[in-house]
Amino acid sequence: MNLHEYQGKEILNSFGVQIQRGYVAETPEQAVDAAKKLTEETGTGWHVIKAQVHAGGRGKGGGVKLAKNLDEVREISDQILGMQLITPQTSAEGKTVHQVLIAEDVYYPGDSEPKEYYMSVLLDRAAGKNMIMYSPQGGMDIEAVAEETPELIFTETVEPDTGLLPFQARRIAFNLGLSGKAFKEMTKFVFALYKAYENSDSSLFEINPVLKTSDDRVIAVDSKVTIDDNALFRHKDYAAMRDVREENPIEVEAKAVGLNYVDLDGNVGCMVNGAGLAMATMDLIKMAGGEPANFLDVGGTADAERVETAFKIILRDENVKAILVNIFGGIVRCDRVAQGIVDAYKNIGDIPVPIIVRLQGTNAELAKEIIDNSGLDVHSAVEFKEASDKVQAVLA
Description:
396 residues, alpha+beta, D-amino Acid Aminotransferase, Chain A, domain 1, Dna Ligase, domain 1, Rossmann fold, 6-stranded antiparallel sheet, 4-stranded antiparallel sheet, 13 helices, 24% strand, elongated
């Protein structure tokens, strides 16, 4: 589950990470009230207006602007709220901005120059351990830094049995070229950030930039946080932060009825039970010359109602030219699945694309008879290769 910047900062702050202060607003009037409150707290009338969407590169799309007074706060907030923000991480249509974050201006003059860094905590899947990735080149696309100056990307692997150790936090601060007060502040920041990552059951904490201010404070100016969905039962307060307006509406609908669905860009819809079989089915589709339009796991209870719902969700994608149903009948009998497919087909009515059904397992032969004798435009298959050939034939 992805969070907005302001939500990620709330979590960071709860674990002692120093953040750029701010308040979220949904109207220009609320934005002005938030700016007044910040002025009382910080003593400055300059504020940063930030669009709150689940996408990076907001500044490039005009979603981050500086306001020097309350009139500009109102004017800029009015411009950003409701806009279709297009960034390198959104679709061509962009995302509608429903909220803005009114944040303090932390680039104030002082004894030293402000400096931006990049830092993230994530799982190194190859090593099976958490790692901290960081760079002295913050405030820009980390992908560009990795490609153009890979020597400026550092990593620190954290052993699960010991956790983050003091020498590792000091090494991070040293590699970032810090000294004195800023060095100490960075080590505190790293420890607090890692604690936030671990205790929130996150799969990603990305701060870009981490800012060393002109008076040598170290704060999170931005935050990109992804919480592990499988751990949300332990964090009811985090689960309440979900903003379904930012998510794919078809995926939201599927989740509401208990289907595991991920929208893709292909032309063959998939309906499968089991994640491993789903991945193999998508490989099968690609081998047949197609592209999977989705990942859809109906689980172990593929009854008529569930199959019908899955069909309706797949058919909402206008790019789908065929549907491949690939079910292994272990917990559920194949004949029941077959009857569910037939009943669902009749309930939906006219289905404009061919359907290939491969059922293997308990009562698979009976299931094939049900499909073949249904009189519907449904093609049955027994073997993987046979299903692949039929997908290829309907796409030709």
